[in-house]
């Protein structure tokens, strides 16, 4: 919305700052933080009043988690409110990528909200039907990828780019829609699995948002993309303010989610933010780099897959408990040790992922 003011820069020279994506990204970050920080207490109070006993705690989980009983969930509503308001205020709303990523964010957030609602009202971990949830996620993701392909250029729109190899493109044709949908759904559910400890998921999400905010800015700038020899994707730079909004809203949420958490993100936030990250990776043609930058989420998801497969095939478990953050809790790590060490891993993986921008 504020981007429109740049059209009046000839009359009001000060409005020229609204042309710059960097300025609007910083403003989106500040706006997102202020929105969540100011309205967070009221949202938490309302959710605590409506949810009663809050999110149910796993009976087979670490004993230290039982003291969290009664903590409200659906904190993703706080984050999404800050992200949406800030994005609508600071991003260029004429850009199709902005609306496309918001579509998948809101769509996945709605699925997560319904799942959280069922868990809270039934006081059970059995929320939305797994198959039905995945089916809806794939429909939303496929529509999102279809819109991204429509906004793209020629065969490049359906091609897969590879890090470290600047000249190679693999044109997947219509199968790219399926591939892109898999990336988005996979990212959403990987983040969802990671969200099991206070602050564990939100900081890696902010790290990923910062990394992809930079990637989107460079990919959408013909000069920078040519200099770094990465593929230019016109218009993706406007995803940077959205990423800035996620960082700001995430910081605001972390204020209340820091141990001991006053509220949990819930599926409302984890599915939405994971789907959003996947959609940005698809839009910027950095799907493979997402597996590096979001490597922590990949590790968490793989630990669950390995655990389930091992138990079904051999009757034995590889980990003391999955996802893997619970395994380390069972080994005796404190919750804060797990969280901070996993944050460090997320930082290092993001740096490795960003290094692919130069090593080409």
Automatic annotation (TrEMBL):
Its EC number is 2.7.8.13. It catalyses: UDP-N-acetyl-alpha-D-muramoyl-L-alanyl-gamma-D-glutamyl-meso-2,6-diaminopimeloyl-D-alanyl-D-alanine + di-trans,octa-cis-undecaprenyl phosphate = di-trans,octa-cis-undecaprenyl diphospho-N-acetyl-alpha-D-muramoyl-L-alanyl-D-glutamyl-meso-2,6-diaminopimeloyl-D-alanyl-D-alanine + UMP. It is a multi-pass membrane protein. Keywords: Cell cycle, Cell division, Cell membrane, Cell shape, Cell wall biogenesis/degradation, Magnesium, Membrane, Metal-binding, Peptidoglycan synthesis, Transferase, Transmembrane, Transmembrane helix. CDD domains: GT_MraY (cd06852). Its cofactor is Mg(2+). Pathway: Cell wall biogenesis; peptidoglycan biosynthesis. The chain crosses the membrane at residues 20-49, 69-90, 96-114, 134-162, 168-188, 200-219, 239-256, 263-282, 288-311, 338-357. It is found in: Cell membrane; Membrane. InterPro entries: Glycosyl_transferase_4 (IPR000715), PNAcMuramoyl-5peptid_Trfase (IPR003524), PNAcMuramoyl-5peptid_Trfase_CS (IPR018480). One of its GO terms (molecular function) is transferase activity. It comes from the Bacteria. Its main location: membrane. It is an enzyme of class 2 (transferase). Belongs to the glycosyltransferase 4 family. MraY subfamily. Catalyzes the initial step of the lipid cycle reactions in the biosynthesis of the cell wall peptidoglycan: transfers peptidoglycan precursor phospho-MurNAc-pentapeptide from UDP-MurNAc-pentapeptide onto the lipid carrier undecaprenyl phosphate, yielding undecaprenyl-pyrophosphoryl-MurNAc-pentapeptide, known as lipid I. This is Phospho-N-acetylmuramoyl-pentapeptide-transferase. It comes from Jiella pelagia. The lineage of its organism: Bacteria, Pseudomonadati, Pseudomonadota, Alphaproteobacteria, Hyphomicrobiales. The gene is mraY.
């Amino acid at each position: 919305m504020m981007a429109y003011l740049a059209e009046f820069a000839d009359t009001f020279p000060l409005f020229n700052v609204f042309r710059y994506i960097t300025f609007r990204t910083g403003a989106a970050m500040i706006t997102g933080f202020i929105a969540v920080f100011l309205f967070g207490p009221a949202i938490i109070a309302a959710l605590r009043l409506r949810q009663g006993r809050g999110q149910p705690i796993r009976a087979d989980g670490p004993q230290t988690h039982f003291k969290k009983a009664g903590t409200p969930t659906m904190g993703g509503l706080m984050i999404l409110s800050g992200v949406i308001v800030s994005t609508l205020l600071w991003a260029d709303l004429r850009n199709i990528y902005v609306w496309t990523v918001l579509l998948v964010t809101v769509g996945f957030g709605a699925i997560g909200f319904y799942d959280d609602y069922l868990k809270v009202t039934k006081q059970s971990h059995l929320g939305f039907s797994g198959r039905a949830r995945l089916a809806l996620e794939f429909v939303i993701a496929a529509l999102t990828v279809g819109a991204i392909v429509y906004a793209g250029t020629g065969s490049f729109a359906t091609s897969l780019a590879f890090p470290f190899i600047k000249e190679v493109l693999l044109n997947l044709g219509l199968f790219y829609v399926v591939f892109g949908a898999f990336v988005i759904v996979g990212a959403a559910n990987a983040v969802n699995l990671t969200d099991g400890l206070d602050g564990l998921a939100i900081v890696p999400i902010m790290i990923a948002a910062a990394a992809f905010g930079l990637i989107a800015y460079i990919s959408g700038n013909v000069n920078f993309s040519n200099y770094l020899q990465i593929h230019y994707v016109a218009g993706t730079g406007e995803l940077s303010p959205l990423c800035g909004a996620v960082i700001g809203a995430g910081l605001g949420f972390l204020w209340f989610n820091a141990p001991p958490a006053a509220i949990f993100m819930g599926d409302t936030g984890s599915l939405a933010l994971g789907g959003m990250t996947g959609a940005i990776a698809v839009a910027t043609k950095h799907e493979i780099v997402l597996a590096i930058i979001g490597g922590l989420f990949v590790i968490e998801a793989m630990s669950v897959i390995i655990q389930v497969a091992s138990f079904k095939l051999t009757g034995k478990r590889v980990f003391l408990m999955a996802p893997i953050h619970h395994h380390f809790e069972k080994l005796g790590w404190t919750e804060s040790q797990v969280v901070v060490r996993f944050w460090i891993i997320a930082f290092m993986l993001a740096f490795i992922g960003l290094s692919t921008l130069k090593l080409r």
